[in-house]
Amino acid sequence: MASKAVCPGSFDPITYGHLDIISRGAKVFDELHIVVLNNSSKEPAFSVEERMELIRSVTKDIPNIKVDSYRGLLVNYAREVNANAIIRGLRAVSDFEYEMQITSMNRVLHEELETFFIMTNNQYSFLSSSIVKEVAHYGGDISELVPPQVEEALVTKYNVKK
């Protein structure tokens, strides 16, 4: 049986931290579905379609990746694509409590679905999409934080000069 995993997130925008988790997850699973979810508690800078296109652009060299979006419970998406695992990235201890709550609920909803946590590379442990958007909004240098395609999209979005 082929191993399939889902890697969910809002990816608004995708960062080098996300790519670290994605590329490492893609080495472990036969197929990795990057799933753009809408976080109702956040106001996104990019539409779901724009986020998906940016993800496709920066992961085009990883052959076993599929990019999708979903509205609803992640466990239902996992069932639809026959995934047997979820990959979640952890930056710091502060992420763990929240992730444990989600994992515990997912376990109640879909007992066979395993969750794997991948610690992000230390150089990205501070990195979040929110920080990237804030820095980009004020014209700061984000070239070390996101791929060039994402940097360009943010510069255009916020109408700032590099």
From TrEMBL:
Q: Which GO terms describe its molecular function?
A: pantetheine-phosphate adenylyltransferase activity
Q: In which pathway does it act?
A: Cofactor biosynthesis; coenzyme A biosynthesis; CoA from (R)-pantothenate: step 4/5
UniProt main location, coarse:
cytoplasm
Its EC number is 2.7.7.3
Named cofactor requirement(s) = Mg(2+)
Alphabetized Pfam families for the sequence: CTP_transf_like
Q: Where does substrate bind?
A: S10, K42, L74, R88
Q: Which reaction equation describes what this protein catalyses? A: (R)-4'-phosphopantetheine + ATP + H(+) = 3'-dephospho-CoA + diphosphate
Q: Location of site Transition state stabilizer? A: H18
InterPro entries according to UniProt: Cyt_trans-like, PPAT, Rossmann-like_a/b/a_fold
Where is this protein localized, as stated in its record? Cytoplasm
| Listed SUPFAM superfamilies | Nucleotidylyl transferase
- Briefly state the protein's biological role: Reversibly transfers an adenylyl group from ATP to 4'-phosphopantetheine, yielding dephospho-CoA (dPCoA) and pyrophosphate.
Assembly, per entry: Homohexamer.
| Family indicated by similarity | Belongs to the bacterial CoaD family.
| Protein name, per record | Phosphopantetheine adenylyltransferase
**Gene giving rise to this polypeptide:** coaD
